[in-house]
Write a structure and sequence with these properties.
about 160 residues
């Protein structure tokens, strides 16, 4: 179904470009996608005991709020189970790197970023639904996800 939709969009763009030969047409996406393998959050009871939330933002750029007294357990779980799949940043590091733009530390940013941010470095993705996991995703830290194709028509 997706391939059919993409072909239809492509035909419409080509038709538009043909009708407007003096117009430079640029086509690009706002992000890329990669194939992913699920890491089911429901199977991570030890992680669930450490956090107040499932995760926020994206499955490949996930933020967590740590329960009081559980930070060391969270960090140990990360080192043992997730370090090969995700980079770990504190909220302060994420803000310092301007991962979400040039923003001040506002209440909104405080809530959004939680305490820690996990950014995917491979092809794994947190998932909630075992019956229909995502096959592809975005928002991770791989080079592949940070490249966006640009198509130029009528150059």
């Amino acid at each position: 179904k997706i391939s059919r939709i993409c072909r239809e969009i492509n035909k419409k763009v080509q038709k538009f470009a043909a009708k407007n030969p003096d117009t430079l047409v640029l086509v690009f996406a706002d992000h890329s996608h990669i194939d992913v393998e699920p890491l089911f959050f429901d199977d991570m009871s030890e992680l669930q005991e450490c956090v107040t939330n499932i995760y926020a933002i994206e499955s490949r750029c996930a933020t967590f709020v740590i329960k009081d007294g559980k930070e060391n357990d969270f960090l140990n779980y990360y080192k043992r189970e997730l370090k090969d799949h995700y980079d770990l940043l504190t909220k302060e590091q994420a803000i310092g790197l301007k991962l979400f733009g040039d923003t001040d530390k506002t209440e909104w940013v405080e809530k959004l970023l939680g305490d820690y941010l996990l950014i995917a470095i491979g092809h794994h993705s947190f998932e909630n639904f075992k019956d229909d996991p995502m096959k592809a995703s975005h928002a991770g830290g791989t080079e592949e996800e940070n490249l966006v194709n640009l198509y130029v028509i009528n150059k």
